[in-house]
Each structure stands twice: as structure tokens, then as C-alpha cells.
Sequence to fold (391 residues):
Amino acid sequence: MAAPLWFGSRCAPVLGTFVSSSRHSQACLEQCGRRFFSRKQRPKAIVAPVGALKANVQYPEPIQEGEIKYQEEYPWHEKTSPISQQLYHSEEPPPSHGVDIGLPVPRFPGAKKFRQLKRKLTNENRASSELERAARLRTLKVPLDQVKEDWQASFGHEQLKDVATHYNIWKDLFEGAHFHPVVVTNVYYDCDDDHAIPVYRGNVVTPTEASRPPVVQYESDENSLWTLILTNPDGHLRDNEAEYLHWFVGNIPGSDISKGETVCEYFPPFPPQGTGYHRFVFILFKQEGPLDYSMERRPAPCHSLRRRTFHTFEFYRDRQDQLTPAGLNFFQCQWDQSVRDTFRSVLNMPEPIFEYDFPKPFIAPQLMIPHRKPIQYLDKYLPKEPVLKRF
Fold:
């Protein structure tokens, strides 16, 4: 039986089945009231002239009682929605946004050259019988130090820049300007004679572990001069745009920080209770020559938070012709018991304690028939005992 040449035929009551048009009788055609065409005689689809294609503008669904009421005169479109206007058209970025202020990045082979080198090395390792025997007997040892050095020399600075972007370091310290940390800056906090806490690009270090000045290591020429600062962009108690300077050493000859000029003595971290994690950022600047830091000098010991107020971007902007950022490292720190002693004994001030006011949960009104709507009104039947939050 041939397939029908039409869609949705009404001939089923007449014949009881679907047949081709060539087998229909005249009575069937009259009762059906439909013309049949062959494939060659089938008319083309008629398309109305709709003009140029436009964006599919959709309007929001009807507003239910208890929901946030949007402005009905605005369609739900990314250019006309009031919420999208706030997201996409909020503020213009500062002039420094996206500007590279660092040292030149060392050139690395392109993607094609890198794949060729990788394929060549892989073929050599597969052809080595010694590596195969060591891997089979589980005596193969991978030199992790060599792997780390190769990573730092190839992709380390690019990935560290991406990590700093994720933690909003460029936005909060340099107003959007960035640099590639081409100088590897290793920082360690000595706990005792046998153990040390490394600063590993955003790891957590407690205030007790960071109570003493760290050990900073980097490779440089003996005739070069460097500046090292440690700042906290999250801990200022009065100004959200300001920072607290925890350490400042300038005119460092080579990599020997002990011979540098201590502009501001080291002060341990003191994140107040209830403020969460704070970022503590080490920035290493390369100097063009000896610098006079008499204007930035703090008295020793400096236990005044007002004197330790600092702005990294303003400091760099005033000396951008003499300094170039080259190294970066940072860690996160949260309140512990030693912070209380720092406020009371060192800063001679009462310890501030912050509490977060949790907003009241939104409970939608009860509907008789909540068709395709979440049943949120059941939340009002939950127990009303306070939920303990740990900061």
C-alpha cells in the first residue's frame, strides 16, 4: 500500500484505512472535499512577508501576589529591563582597567610548537625501556621540584594572574590594572625549628601562625633593588576603600630582605570577629634605582591604625616611573583567639565584634491552586527556633 500524499486525511470513515489518491473513488473525493496532488503538482508553501528578523522579545509572566513587581511597561529584554540596566549599564570602568603595568612577559613557544615538543618528548619516553621497567616495578620517581620549576617558567605567571583576578586583587588594589607575576615570590612563616607554613596563593594561615615576620625568597641580581609590601584590603574599620599596611621594606639589595630599609615594621594580622576571611597580599616591586621613602616612613613601633592606613594604587601612581610590580603572593586569614590579645594588649582598644543581621525569609502567600508554582508557603510551618550560625 502506498503512503498517503496528504496530512490528516478525513477519508478514514469512508474507506476505513489510509490509501493513496489513485485508489479513491469519486464518492470518496466528494465526501472528503479535499483535492489530492501528486508530488510534482503539490503547491509550494505560502510564506507571508514578515520583513527583517527581529529579536524575540518576551514579556514577563503575570505577576502573582507576593512576588516582586517589575515595571510592566518594560519588556523583559537585556537592553530595556530595569534589572539588566543596572547589571550591564551600571558604572563606567576606571581608566586603569585592563592596563598591564608589569614587567615584559617572557616569550613561550606557540601552541603548534608546544604540541610538537610535547609529542617528541612523549615518543622518547615511550621508547625508553628504563622508564618502562621503573614504572612496571613501581620504582619510578618524578622530580617534583623540576616539575614546579618548569611550570613556573612556562605557565605559572599566567595562571597566578588568573587566580588573582578570581580573588579581585587587581580590582581592589590597582583599580583594574594588572601585571604578570614573572618573579616567583615564595613566602614562609616559621612555626618552629622544623616546621614552616607556606603562603600558597590563597591558602589559609591563622593569625597565630603569622604572628612573626615571614621569610620571603625570590631570585634576582645582586645589583638590583626591590620593594616589598604586605597589605590587607579587607580589614579597615572605618573606610571600605582603604587598606591596612602590615609590612613595608624598601631598597632591598638583591634578595636579602634583612639589608633593606624597613619603612613600616611588621604587624601581625588582626581580622575582627565576624568579618570572615581577609586577604593579605604580598607585592614585590622592582626599583629603577634608590628611592627616598621618608614620606612613607612610619614610627617604630607603629601601633596606630590611622598611621597604617594605606592605598596601594595611590602609592604606585605616585611612583610609577620608579617602581614596576613583578611578584605576587597572598593568603587568607580568619579570626582566632590571638586577635583578642592583639586588640587589647598591642592596639589598646576594645575588640570589635561584628554580627550579621540575617534578613527575614520571604514566605509567599498561600494559593488555592498553585499551578506550576513552588509551594513556598509551607515554610511558615517550620520551627521558629533560631539557627546558630558559625562565623
Remarks:
- Residues 1-22, 45-89 have pLDDT under 50 and may be disordered.
- Residues 197 and 235 are 22 Å apart (CA to CA).
- Residues 1-36 form one domain.
